């Protein structure tokens, strides 16, 4: 039997409901529209254009420096990724015959203007031999880079186009490459 003289435990309090809404009244439509209104044309158009040009120039300069330094955020799609970085470093660490292509071509073009037939023939033969050496160097570089990338990243994960990427980089002057070389000659990536 229950003893009615003792007070019973109080009933459990209703669970607190979280406050719904955003905690402030909805602004009237007129206030919302006024807040969204911006002038279509600034008061001083020349100053606004000057500020816009300065802002664009600053962002372009930041992107140019980021690209030159090899920052992944600023690289174009063709240069992004760890495999492309590895290939860039590998190509930059070695000497390529293609780096001499433009200076040698200037010399050979000047040599073709010499009225001597023998000099012109030797200049053309030198050009063809050099082009053959360049092609051989690029083909060997392609096989070497593919093998090194497969060893480092796995043979099944090698990206397509790495040989072509390495060849195009190897044919450029070292100082004109973008992104700029991050390694010294002989400092091959591991």
Q: How are the SSEs ordered, and which strands pair?
A:
Blueprint: H1 29-36, H2 45-69, H3 82-93, H4 101-112, H5 117-153, H6 162-170
How is this structure best described in words?
The model has no long low-confidence stretch (mean pLDDT 88). The protein is an all-alpha fold.
**Major β-sheet annotation:** none
Estimated radius of gyration: 34 Å
Order of helices and strands: HHHHHH
* Share of residues in strands: under 5%
User: Helix- and strand-based class?
Assistant: mainly alpha
User: How many helices?
Assistant: 6
How many E strands?
A: 0
Compute the average pLDDT.
Answer: 88
Provide the descriptors you would attach to this structure in a database record.
190 residues, mainly alpha, 6 helices, 54% helix
What can be said about this structure in brief?
With 190 residues, this protein is mainly alpha-helical.
């Amino acid at each position: 039997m229950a003893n009615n003289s003792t007070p019973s435990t109080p009933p459990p309090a209703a669970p607190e409901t979280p406050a719904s809404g955003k905690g402030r009244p909805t602004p009237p439509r007129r206030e919302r529209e006024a807040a969204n209104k911006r002038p279509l044309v600034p008061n001083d158009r020349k100053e606004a254009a000057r500020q816009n040009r300065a802002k664009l120039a600053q962002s372009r300069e930041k992107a140019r420096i980021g690209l030159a330094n090899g920052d992944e955020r600023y690289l174009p799609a063709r240069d992004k990724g760890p495999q492309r970085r590895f290939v860039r470093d590998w190509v930059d660490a070695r000497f390529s015959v293609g780096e001499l292509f433009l200076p040698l071509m200037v010399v050979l073009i000047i040599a073709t203007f010499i009225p001597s037939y023998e000099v012109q023939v030797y200049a053309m033969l030198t050009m063809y031999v050099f082009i053959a050496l360049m092609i051989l160097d690029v083909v060997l570089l392609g096989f070497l880079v593919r093998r090194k990338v497969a060893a480092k990243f796995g043979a099944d994960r090698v990206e397509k186009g790495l040989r072509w990427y390495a060849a195009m980089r190897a044919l450029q002057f070292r100082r004109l490459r973008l992104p700029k070389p991050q390694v010294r000659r002989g400092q091959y990536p591991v």
